[in-house]
Every structure is written in structure tokens, then in C-alpha cells.
């Protein structure tokens, strides 16, 4: 039987990627009590990091938002594993932190990270509303344009 969140993903036309393997010395998530901390995820398309480059230097805000949404979906892939395969166990999205590779004069990091935030609310409804930080950085792994990490509460 498909759960409520899986059905919502299908309704939105969204597919979760397979939970990837870390490329460095860390684990994809940790759990303490009912809180799950998901490591930062970069966006991928067809197995490669996409989008790459900097916001404010050739990467459009809308493209960055697509990337942030892809990061959120990658987080959900790991969260599904953490929840024993049942995303209906997600009680709340607590916090999202988004890192946006950008030029020094680019100031729309919050708009870019909205790609992840909007996905959280679209998927989880009121339980998807969260605290958030959007940070501009000079470079991200693999020249990714955006990276997103999150904290979630399970029931």
C-alpha cells in the first residue's frame, strides 16, 4: 500500500532519487531520539551534478530553485531510509539550511532556497513549514550551484 506522502509525491509528479553513497568521510544521516539530521545534498540530473556554476554569473534564479528542489528530494531519499521506508513517519520538517554558490554581489539566496522550501510545503503541507537559513558561499563540492541540508522529526 502506498503511503500518504508517497501518493502526494506521485500527485506532484516528483520521484525520489535513490539514496546516494557519501563521497567523503561522513554518513548520510544521523538519528537522535525522533530527530533526523540529513547531511547536505547537492542536486543531480542523470547521475551528474546539475546545475553547476554560480548564481549571479550565468546561473538563473529559476535554475537554482530547480537545483534546491532536487536537493530536497535527495534528502527525502535518505530520510525514507532513516524512517524505515515509511515517509508517513515524518511528523515535521524542522529546519532547512541552503548554501548557494554565488558571486559577491548576488543577494537572492533566499529566493533560490525557496525551491527546497516550496517542495517541503507542497509535499508535507503544514508539517512542511520550517525554520530556515539561506547562505551565499564562494564554491560548493563539484561546482554545484546549491546544497541543502535538513532536520526532520519522526513520529
From TrEMBL:
Name the InterPro entries on file. Answer: Endoribo_LPSP/chorism_mut-like, RutC-like_sf
Q: Membrane spanning segments where?
A: none
Q: Please name one Pfam family that this protein belongs to.
A: YjgF_endoribonc
- Domain of life, per lineage: Bacteria
Please list the residue ranges annotated as the Endoribonuclease L-PSP/chorismate mutase-like domain. Answer: 6-144
Q: List the protein's name.
A: Enamine deaminase RidA (YjgF/YER057c/UK114 family)
Amino acid at each position: 500500500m502506498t503511503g500518504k506522502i508517497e501518493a502526494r509525491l506521485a500527485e506532484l509528479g516528483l520521484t525520489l532519487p535513490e539514496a546516494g553513497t557519501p563521497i567523503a568521510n561522513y554518513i548520510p544521516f544521523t538519528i537522535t531520539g525522533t530527530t533526523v539530521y540529513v547531511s547536505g545534498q547537492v542536486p543531480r540530473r542523470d547521475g551528474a551534478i546539475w546545475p553547476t556554476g554560480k548564481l549571479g554569473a550565468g546561473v538563473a534564479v529559476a535554475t537554482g530553485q530547480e537545483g534546491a528542489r532536487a536537493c530536497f528530494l535527495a534528502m527525502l531519499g535518505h530520510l525514507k531510509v532513516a524512517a524505515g521506508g515509511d515517509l508517513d513517519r515524518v511528523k515535521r520538517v524542522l529546519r532547512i539550511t541552503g548554501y548557494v554558490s554565488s558571486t559577491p554581489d548576488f543577494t537572492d539566496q533566499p529566493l533560490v532556497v525557496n525551491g527546497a522550501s516550496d517542495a517541503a510545503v507542497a509535499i508535507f503541507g503544514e508539517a512542511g513549514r520550517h525554520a530556515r537559513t539561506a547562505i551565499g558561499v564562494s564554491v560548493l563540492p563539484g561546482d554545484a550551484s546549491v546544497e541543502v541540508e535538513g532536520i526532520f522529526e519522526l513520529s
